[in-house]
Design goal:
Elements: H1 2-22, E1 33-34, E2 43-73, E3 85-115, E4 118-138, E5 148-171, E6 174-191, E7 196-214, E8 219-247, E9 253-281, E10 288-289
Length: 290
Protein backbone atom coordinates (compact mmCIF):
# COMPACT_ATOMS: atom_id res chain seq x y z
CA UNK A 1 0.00 0.00 0.00
CA UNK A 2 2.78 2.30 0.93
CA UNK A 3 4.66 1.58 -2.25
CA UNK A 4 1.50 2.36 -4.23
CA UNK A 5 1.10 5.81 -2.58
CA UNK A 6 4.76 6.68 -3.23
CA UNK A 7 4.37 5.81 -6.87
CA UNK A 8 1.27 8.00 -7.20
CA UNK A 9 3.07 10.99 -5.54
CA UNK A 10 6.13 10.57 -7.77
CA UNK A 11 3.98 10.55 -10.86
CA UNK A 12 2.11 13.67 -9.71
CA UNK A 13 5.37 15.54 -9.04
CA UNK A 14 6.66 14.73 -12.52
CA UNK A 15 3.49 16.05 -14.16
CA UNK A 16 3.63 19.25 -12.08
CA UNK A 17 7.28 19.83 -12.96
CA UNK A 18 6.55 19.38 -16.63
CA UNK A 19 3.68 21.88 -16.48
CA UNK A 20 5.83 24.38 -14.62
CA UNK A 21 8.53 24.11 -17.25
CA UNK A 22 6.01 25.22 -19.87
CA UNK A 23 5.00 28.41 -17.99
CA UNK A 24 6.58 31.77 -19.09
CA UNK A 25 9.37 33.08 -16.92
CA UNK A 26 8.80 36.62 -15.57
CA UNK A 27 11.92 38.78 -15.36
CA UNK A 28 12.27 42.08 -13.50
CA UNK A 29 14.29 45.10 -14.68
CA UNK A 30 15.28 48.16 -12.65
CA UNK A 31 13.51 51.45 -13.43
CA UNK A 32 15.81 54.26 -14.62
CA UNK A 33 17.19 56.38 -11.82
CA UNK A 34 17.59 60.09 -12.56
CA UNK A 35 20.73 61.39 -10.96
CA UNK A 36 20.97 65.10 -10.16
CA UNK A 37 24.15 66.21 -11.96
CA UNK A 38 24.44 69.35 -9.84
CA UNK A 39 24.26 72.85 -11.24
CA UNK A 40 24.96 72.90 -14.96
CA UNK A 41 25.90 76.25 -16.52
CA UNK A 42 25.55 74.97 -20.09
CA UNK A 43 22.78 76.36 -22.26
CA UNK A 44 21.04 79.52 -23.37
CA UNK A 45 20.25 82.41 -20.99
CA UNK A 46 18.72 85.88 -21.06
CA UNK A 47 18.74 88.68 -18.50
CA UNK A 48 18.92 92.35 -17.63
CA UNK A 49 21.39 94.71 -15.99
CA UNK A 50 21.84 98.21 -14.60
CA UNK A 51 24.83 100.20 -13.45
CA UNK A 52 26.91 103.34 -13.69
CA UNK A 53 29.64 104.44 -16.12
CA UNK A 54 32.57 106.81 -15.81
CA UNK A 55 33.46 107.93 -19.33
CA UNK A 56 36.03 110.28 -20.80
CA UNK A 57 35.86 112.39 -23.97
CA UNK A 58 39.24 113.63 -25.20
CA UNK A 59 39.12 116.26 -27.95
CA UNK A 60 42.42 117.01 -29.68
CA UNK A 61 43.36 118.84 -32.83
CA UNK A 62 45.27 121.73 -34.38
CA UNK A 63 44.52 125.35 -35.11
CA UNK A 64 46.05 126.80 -38.27
CA UNK A 65 45.56 130.15 -39.93
CA UNK A 66 46.76 133.03 -42.03
CA UNK A 67 47.07 136.76 -41.53
CA UNK A 68 46.57 139.10 -44.47
CA UNK A 69 47.63 142.77 -44.29
CA UNK A 70 46.40 145.27 -46.90
CA UNK A 71 47.01 149.01 -47.19
CA UNK A 72 44.67 151.35 -49.03
CA UNK A 73 44.78 155.01 -49.83
CA UNK A 74 42.63 156.83 -47.33
CA UNK A 75 40.80 158.96 -49.87
CA UNK A 76 40.36 156.74 -52.94
CA UNK A 77 40.53 153.38 -51.11
CA UNK A 78 42.88 151.98 -53.75
CA UNK A 79 45.03 148.99 -52.74
CA UNK A 80 48.66 150.00 -52.65
CA UNK A 81 51.24 148.18 -54.72
CA UNK A 82 52.70 145.07 -53.00
CA UNK A 83 49.61 144.32 -50.95
CA UNK A 84 48.08 142.22 -49.56
CA UNK A 85 50.87 140.54 -47.64
CA UNK A 86 49.75 137.07 -46.49
CA UNK A 87 51.60 135.34 -43.66
CA UNK A 88 50.87 131.77 -42.46
CA UNK A 89 50.50 131.49 -38.73
CA UNK A 90 52.14 128.84 -36.58
CA UNK A 91 50.04 125.78 -35.78
CA UNK A 92 48.67 125.64 -32.26
CA UNK A 93 47.36 122.48 -30.51
CA UNK A 94 43.69 122.30 -29.57
CA UNK A 95 42.72 120.34 -26.47
CA UNK A 96 39.70 119.57 -24.30
CA UNK A 97 38.90 116.96 -21.64
CA UNK A 98 35.49 116.07 -20.23
CA UNK A 99 34.08 113.51 -17.82
CA UNK A 100 31.06 111.85 -19.43
CA UNK A 101 29.32 109.97 -16.60
CA UNK A 102 25.85 108.54 -16.03
CA UNK A 103 23.56 105.57 -15.48
CA UNK A 104 23.34 102.68 -17.95
CA UNK A 105 20.93 99.78 -18.27
CA UNK A 106 19.81 97.16 -20.73
CA UNK A 107 19.57 93.48 -21.51
CA UNK A 108 21.87 90.60 -22.40
CA UNK A 109 21.64 87.12 -23.90
CA UNK A 110 24.20 84.38 -24.29
CA UNK A 111 25.14 80.73 -24.42
CA UNK A 112 27.50 78.73 -22.18
CA UNK A 113 29.43 75.50 -22.63
CA UNK A 114 30.62 73.92 -19.36
CA UNK A 115 33.55 71.48 -19.44
CA UNK A 116 34.29 70.28 -15.95
CA UNK A 117 35.29 73.31 -13.90
CA UNK A 118 35.81 75.45 -17.02
CA UNK A 119 33.21 77.52 -18.83
CA UNK A 120 33.26 78.99 -22.35
CA UNK A 121 30.55 81.31 -23.59
CA UNK A 122 29.31 84.01 -25.93
CA UNK A 123 27.29 87.03 -24.81
CA UNK A 124 25.75 90.09 -26.48
CA UNK A 125 24.12 93.08 -24.80
CA UNK A 126 22.46 96.36 -25.76
CA UNK A 127 22.44 99.32 -23.36
CA UNK A 128 20.72 102.65 -23.00
CA UNK A 129 22.93 105.39 -21.57
CA UNK A 130 22.47 108.66 -19.72
CA UNK A 131 26.17 109.54 -19.83
CA UNK A 132 26.72 113.28 -20.31
CA UNK A 133 29.45 115.87 -19.78
CA UNK A 134 30.86 119.19 -20.96
CA UNK A 135 34.16 121.03 -21.05
CA UNK A 136 35.93 123.92 -22.75
CA UNK A 137 38.08 123.23 -25.80
CA UNK A 138 41.14 125.45 -25.57
CA UNK A 139 44.45 126.38 -27.17
CA UNK A 140 46.38 125.45 -24.02
CA UNK A 141 46.08 122.24 -22.02
CA UNK A 142 44.30 123.06 -18.78
CA UNK A 143 42.38 125.93 -20.43
CA UNK A 144 44.09 128.95 -18.94
CA UNK A 145 42.06 132.15 -18.97
CA UNK A 146 41.72 133.58 -22.46
CA UNK A 147 42.66 130.37 -24.30
CA UNK A 148 39.16 128.91 -24.70
CA UNK A 149 37.69 128.37 -28.16
CA UNK A 150 34.25 126.99 -27.31
CA UNK A 151 32.34 124.85 -24.81
CA UNK A 152 31.51 121.32 -25.99
CA UNK A 153 28.66 119.15 -24.69
CA UNK A 154 29.09 115.38 -25.00
CA UNK A 155 26.62 112.50 -24.75
CA UNK A 156 26.74 108.73 -25.16
CA UNK A 157 23.23 107.84 -26.34
CA UNK A 158 23.55 104.03 -26.40
CA UNK A 159 26.09 101.22 -26.77
CA UNK A 160 26.33 97.48 -27.12
CA UNK A 161 28.88 94.67 -27.02
CA UNK A 162 29.42 91.19 -28.48
CA UNK A 163 31.91 89.29 -26.35
CA UNK A 164 33.45 85.94 -25.61
CA UNK A 165 33.66 84.66 -22.03
CA UNK A 166 36.03 82.21 -20.37
CA UNK A 167 35.66 81.31 -16.72
CA UNK A 168 36.46 78.91 -13.93
CA UNK A 169 34.11 77.40 -11.33
CA UNK A 170 35.68 77.35 -7.85
CA UNK A 171 32.37 75.75 -6.75
CA UNK A 172 29.57 74.41 -8.92
CA UNK A 173 27.46 77.53 -8.31
CA UNK A 174 30.08 80.30 -8.48
CA UNK A 175 31.63 81.48 -11.74
CA UNK A 176 34.63 83.81 -12.11
CA UNK A 177 35.23 84.95 -15.69
CA UNK A 178 37.12 87.23 -18.07
CA UNK A 179 35.43 88.69 -21.13
CA UNK A 180 36.27 90.73 -24.21
CA UNK A 181 35.31 91.52 -27.77
CA UNK A 182 33.51 94.06 -29.95
CA UNK A 183 31.95 97.28 -28.63
CA UNK A 184 29.92 99.86 -30.54
CA UNK A 185 27.87 102.93 -29.66
CA UNK A 186 26.26 106.18 -30.68
CA UNK A 187 28.10 109.30 -29.49
CA UNK A 188 27.15 112.94 -30.07
CA UNK A 189 28.81 116.29 -29.36
CA UNK A 190 27.68 119.88 -29.79
CA UNK A 191 29.07 123.38 -29.37
CA UNK A 192 25.85 125.46 -29.23
CA UNK A 193 27.54 128.86 -29.18
CA UNK A 194 29.13 128.43 -32.63
CA UNK A 195 26.87 126.45 -33.50
CA UNK A 196 28.63 123.16 -34.30
CA UNK A 197 27.87 119.45 -33.93
CA UNK A 198 29.83 116.27 -34.52
CA UNK A 199 29.71 112.61 -33.53
CA UNK A 200 28.81 109.26 -35.04
CA UNK A 201 28.07 105.59 -34.42
CA UNK A 202 31.43 103.91 -34.09
CA UNK A 203 32.84 100.47 -33.28
CA UNK A 204 35.70 99.74 -30.89
CA UNK A 205 36.64 97.10 -28.33
CA UNK A 206 36.01 96.11 -24.73
CA UNK A 207 37.59 93.90 -22.04
CA UNK A 208 36.50 93.12 -18.52
CA UNK A 209 35.86 90.61 -15.76
CA UNK A 210 33.04 89.51 -13.53
CA UNK A 211 31.60 87.09 -11.01
CA UNK A 212 28.30 85.24 -11.26
CA UNK A 213 26.52 83.17 -8.60
CA UNK A 214 23.64 80.73 -9.10
CA UNK A 215 20.57 81.22 -6.90
CA UNK A 216 18.85 78.04 -8.09
CA UNK A 217 18.80 75.91 -11.25
CA UNK A 218 17.42 78.83 -13.31
CA UNK A 219 18.39 82.15 -11.78
CA UNK A 220 21.81 83.72 -11.23
CA UNK A 221 23.13 87.18 -10.33
CA UNK A 222 26.33 88.82 -11.51
CA UNK A 223 28.66 91.76 -10.95
CA UNK A 224 30.65 92.90 -13.99
CA UNK A 225 33.25 95.51 -14.93
CA UNK A 226 33.99 96.52 -18.54
CA UNK A 227 36.52 98.91 -20.03
CA UNK A 228 35.29 100.18 -23.40
CA UNK A 229 37.20 102.13 -26.06
CA UNK A 230 35.11 103.40 -28.98
CA UNK A 231 38.06 105.19 -30.59
CA UNK A 232 37.49 108.26 -32.76
CA UNK A 233 33.77 109.01 -32.40
CA UNK A 234 33.62 112.17 -34.51
CA UNK A 235 35.51 114.96 -36.26
CA UNK A 236 34.74 118.66 -36.40
CA UNK A 237 36.15 121.96 -37.53
CA UNK A 238 35.42 125.61 -37.01
CA UNK A 239 36.64 128.78 -38.73
CA UNK A 240 36.88 132.27 -37.27
CA UNK A 241 37.77 135.43 -39.17
CA UNK A 242 38.57 138.82 -37.64
CA UNK A 243 39.10 142.10 -39.50
CA UNK A 244 40.85 145.05 -37.88
CA UNK A 245 40.99 148.45 -39.66
CA UNK A 246 43.32 151.17 -38.44
CA UNK A 247 45.12 154.27 -39.76
CA UNK A 248 48.40 153.42 -41.40
CA UNK A 249 51.67 155.26 -41.84
CA UNK A 250 51.60 157.79 -43.38
CA UNK A 251 48.22 158.93 -42.05
CA UNK A 252 46.66 159.07 -45.48
CA UNK A 253 46.80 155.25 -45.66
CA UNK A 254 44.38 152.73 -44.10
CA UNK A 255 45.60 149.30 -42.95
CA UNK A 256 43.23 146.32 -42.90
CA UNK A 257 44.40 143.17 -41.10
CA UNK A 258 42.38 140.00 -41.71
CA UNK A 259 43.06 136.93 -39.57
CA UNK A 260 41.48 133.61 -40.55
CA UNK A 261 41.79 130.71 -38.10
CA UNK A 262 40.67 127.12 -38.66
CA UNK A 263 40.49 124.58 -35.84
CA UNK A 264 40.20 120.91 -36.85
CA UNK A 265 39.79 118.26 -34.16
CA UNK A 266 38.50 114.80 -33.31
CA UNK A 267 37.09 113.24 -30.15
CA UNK A 268 38.02 109.88 -28.63
CA UNK A 269 35.69 108.21 -26.12
CA UNK A 270 36.58 105.64 -23.46
CA UNK A 271 34.39 104.28 -20.67
CA UNK A 272 34.55 102.40 -17.37
CA UNK A 273 31.33 100.44 -16.76
CA UNK A 274 30.29 98.77 -13.51
CA UNK A 275 26.95 96.95 -13.51
CA UNK A 276 24.92 94.29 -11.74
CA UNK A 277 22.71 91.85 -13.60
CA UNK A 278 20.37 88.90 -13.32
CA UNK A 279 20.12 85.96 -15.72
CA UNK A 280 17.50 83.27 -16.34
CA UNK A 281 19.07 80.04 -17.56
CA UNK A 282 16.99 77.53 -19.48
CA UNK A 283 17.06 73.88 -18.37
CA UNK A 284 20.05 71.89 -19.62
CA UNK A 285 19.35 68.31 -20.76
CA UNK A 286 19.00 65.68 -17.99
CA UNK A 287 20.90 62.43 -18.56
CA UNK A 288 19.26 59.20 -17.32
CA UNK A 289 21.57 56.57 -15.77
CA UNK A 290 20.59 52.89 -15.33
Amino acid sequence: MTKFLVAILAASFGVTSALAADLPVRTYTKAPVYVDPGYNWSGFYIGGNAGYSWGSAATDGTQTGTQSVSEFTAITNVLLLGFPVVTPLASVPVSGRANVDGFVGGGQAGYNWQRGTWLFGLEADLQGSDERGSSDVCLVAGCATGTGLFTANYKLDWFGTARGRIGILPTDRVLLYATGGLAYGGFSATAPAIPLSWGTTHAGWTVGAGAEAAIDHHWSVKLEYLYMDLGDVGDGSTTATTVVTQPGVPIRHTTVTTTALTSAFSTRFTDNILRVGINYRFDPPVVAKY
